[in-house]
């Protein structure tokens, strides 16, 4: 951490780092979810939607990178051991192999995209309260993506309804 930021944030940095780490774990797991489902999708989703899921996966991976960069800036490291990711994550059990049809994949995605919206909203509030404007800016940037993700997932699910 740069010495000026260190002086300004003081002990608050540790609180922010903790939230950033859990967000990192969520993003890595969500990345893997979309990636895996995109490769192994079953049924009609394989021809119609698998590529979109892989694109979505790389979007989540980009979030993980932004978080890892900020954690490093604050003088720590993102959780490196994949076995820790489930432990610090906020989105519960996530086994992509259990959600391989398009509808099942999107229904599970809707849950964790909603959770991501809540989490980044809370992170933005917390960062603002603690005077960490860089993290605040990061949280609102990712939040805007997650709001889009949730809306998009909702729209696709709706379009699957038989009329
Ligand atoms: Fe994300
Ligand atoms: Fe997302």
TrEMBL record:
Query: Which InterPro entries does the entry link to?
Result: Ferritin-like, Ferritin-like_diiron, Ferritin-like_SF, Ferritin_DPS_dom
Keyword hit for Iron: yes
**Does this entry carry the keyword Iron?**
yes
Q: Where is the Ferritin-like diiron domain?
A: 10-163
Query: What's any GO biological process attached to this entry?
Result: intracellular iron ion homeostasis
Q: Name one GO cellular component term.
A: cytosol
The portions of this protein that span the membrane are none
- Tell me which domain of life the UniProt entry assigns to the organism this sequence originates from: Archaea
| Keywords from the named record | Iron, Iron storage
Q: What is this protein called?
A: Putative ferritin, Dps family protein
The species this protein was found in: Nitrososphaera gargensis (strain Ga9.2)
């Amino acid at each position: 951490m740069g010495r000026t930021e260190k002086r300004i944030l003081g002990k608050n940095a540790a609180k922010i780092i903790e939230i950033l780490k859990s967000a990192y774990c969520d993003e890595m797991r969500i990345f893997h979810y979309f990636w895996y489902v995109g490769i192994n999708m079953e049924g009609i989703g394989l021809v119609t939607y698998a590529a979109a899921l892989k694109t979505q996966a790389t979007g989540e991976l980009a979030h993980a990178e932004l978080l890892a960069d900020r954690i490093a800036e604050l003088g720590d490291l993102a959780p490196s051991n994949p076995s820790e990711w489930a432990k610090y994550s906020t989105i519960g059990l996530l086994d992509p192999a259990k959600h391989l049809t398009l509808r099942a994949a999107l229904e599970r995605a809707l849950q964790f995209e909603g959770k991501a919206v809540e989490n980044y909203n809370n992170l933005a509030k917390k960062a603002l309260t603690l005077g960490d404007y860089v993290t605040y800016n990061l949280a609102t940037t990712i939040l805007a993506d997650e709001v889009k993700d949730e809306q998009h997932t909702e729209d696709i699910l709706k379009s699957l309804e038989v009329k």
